[in-house]
């Protein structure tokens, strides 16, 4: 357990502290079986020790614990210690609704007891919710079968633990996902949670931001730039990476491409030969970008995205049409929202090799940007989503009520 220090403070009111996960520094945290076992056996006791230490220090006591829904054990510790408790869900409400529906999915023989699908099929939790492929359930498209079963077991544990939460809040809006809240009314949206809502800057990145791209965007025409970013985890092999690069080149449009140092599995320069020189006049590549500021820039025409929920909310909140390239977990569900429910984007088709080709990329860019109905719907969705956080909106009311509950 780390002692608090000045460097562990954010302002004068937020202090950061870590607790052990049960593994030694040299042990492999990619071994989910070992990590899961260590977390559930070690961290609850360490959190309890931390709370007791703070409450015995003579300063203000811990009166409320807010935990990520995936850390359900922290809610159980709070209940045990008689502390008020709230769960926060950072992804789509429909994603949590899927987790809550696991018992019914088993009863309806859609999945087995270990989460594996009975067969490949499309389902809807309710008629107004996005269609989901059983092979793309969040736990079914991460890692190997052993990893998938571990993630499924953790989700089942969290579904039980979250029942002790007095509040269950999520980073979404009623306007974006009304059917999910009808299905599970205990879910309360307080989003979209964006730093730009308070004219602030986002913090907590894996990579150093390169803000020079904002000056580059200033030099581009309005609604002209393809913004390309795949989040923190997406990795391409060299063939797919080069097809993407050549596809962007083929569009003959300005593009801003976030290329993490680890975005490919190659250790050498993975760009096609001569690519950087050929796109020098209209292409900008950075290691990481200030995404909320980028998406709010008037030069952005569309967002080629992996469809992580934060990216989805940021794009929607700025009225930006999408080109969807999901990688794993909940990203396929988010694509279904974007393309099938909100109709503000297009997905890509893969060839017989499983590759999204340069020609497919060029064609979908042209299709999206030549049809103004995508932009019109995106602006309409933006107005509805942002209206939820204004005075009188669902998210505004829920958030204020939540704050008052914490203060009571």
Automatic annotation (TrEMBL):
Which InterPro entries has this protein been placed in? UDP_glucos_trans
KW Transferase (keyword) present: yes
Q: Which domain of life is it from?
A: Eukaryota
MF terms (GO), sorted A to Z: quercetin 3-O-glucosyltransferase activity; quercetin 7-O-glucosyltransferase activity
What Gene3D superfamilies does this protein map onto?
A: Glycogen Phosphorylase B
Q: Which Pfam families match?
A: UDPGT
Keywords on record = Transferase
Keyword Nucleotide-binding recorded: no
Annotated family: Belongs to the UDP-glycosyltransferase family.
PANTHER family hit by this protein: GLUCOSYL/GLUCURONOSYL TRANSFERASES (PTHR11926), UDP-GLYCOSYLTRANSFERASE 83A1-LIKE (PTHR11926:SF1412)
Name listed for the protein in its UniProt record = UDP-glycosyltransferases domain-containing protein
User: What is the species listed in this Swiss-Prot or TrEMBL entry?
Assistant: Nyssa sinensis
């Amino acid at each position: 357990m780390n002692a608090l220090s000045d460097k562990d403070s954010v302002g004068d009111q937020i202090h950061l502290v870590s607790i052990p996960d049960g593994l030694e520094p040299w042990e492999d945290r990619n071994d989910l079986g070992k990590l899961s076992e260590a977390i559930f056996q070690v961290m609850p006791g360490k959190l309890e020790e931390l709370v007791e230490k703070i409450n015995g220090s003579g300063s203000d006591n811990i009166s409320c614990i807010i935990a990520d829904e995936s850390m359900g054990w922290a809610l159980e510790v709070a209940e045990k210690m008689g502390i008020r408790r709230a769960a926060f869900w950072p992804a789509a409400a429909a994603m949590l609704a899927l987790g809550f529906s696991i018992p019914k999915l088993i009863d309806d023989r859609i999945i087995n007891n270990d989460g594996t699908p009975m067969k490949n099929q499309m389902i809807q939790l309710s008629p107004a919710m996005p269609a989901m492929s059983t092979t793309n359930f969040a736990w079914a498209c991460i890692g190997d079968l052993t990893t998938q079963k571990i993630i499924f077991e953790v989700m089942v544990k969290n579904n039980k633990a979250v029942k002790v939460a007095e509040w269950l809040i999520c980073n979404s809006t009623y306007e974006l996902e009304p059917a999910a809240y009808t299905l599970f009314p205990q879910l309360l949206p307080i989003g979209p949670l964006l730093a730009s809502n308070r004219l602030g800057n986002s913090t907590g990145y894996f990579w150093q931001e390169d803000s020079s791209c904002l000056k580059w965007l200033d030099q581009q025409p309005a609604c002209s730039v393809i913004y390309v970013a795949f989040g923190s985890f997406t990795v391409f092999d060299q063939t797919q990476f080069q097809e993407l690069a050549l596809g962007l080149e083929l569009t003959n449009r300005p593009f801003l491409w976030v290329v993490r140092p680890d975005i490919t599995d190659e250790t050498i320069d993975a760009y096609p030969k001569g690519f950087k020189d050929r796109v020098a006049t209209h292409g900008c590549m950075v290691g990481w970008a200030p995404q909320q500021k980028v998406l709010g820039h008037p030069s952005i025409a569309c967002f080629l995205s992996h469809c992580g929920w934060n990216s989805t909310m940021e794009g929607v909140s700025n009225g930006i049409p999408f080109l969807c390239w999901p990688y794993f977990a909940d990203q396929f569900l988010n694509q279904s929202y974007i393309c099938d429910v909100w109709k503000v984007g297009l997905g890509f088709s893969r060839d017989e090799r499983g590759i999204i080709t340069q020609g497919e990329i060029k064609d979908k860019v042209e299709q999206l940007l030549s049809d103004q109905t995508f932009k019109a719907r995106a602006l309409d969705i933006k107005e509805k989503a942002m209206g939820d956080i204004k005075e009188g909106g669902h998210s505004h009311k829920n958030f204020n009520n939540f704050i008052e509950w914490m203060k009571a």
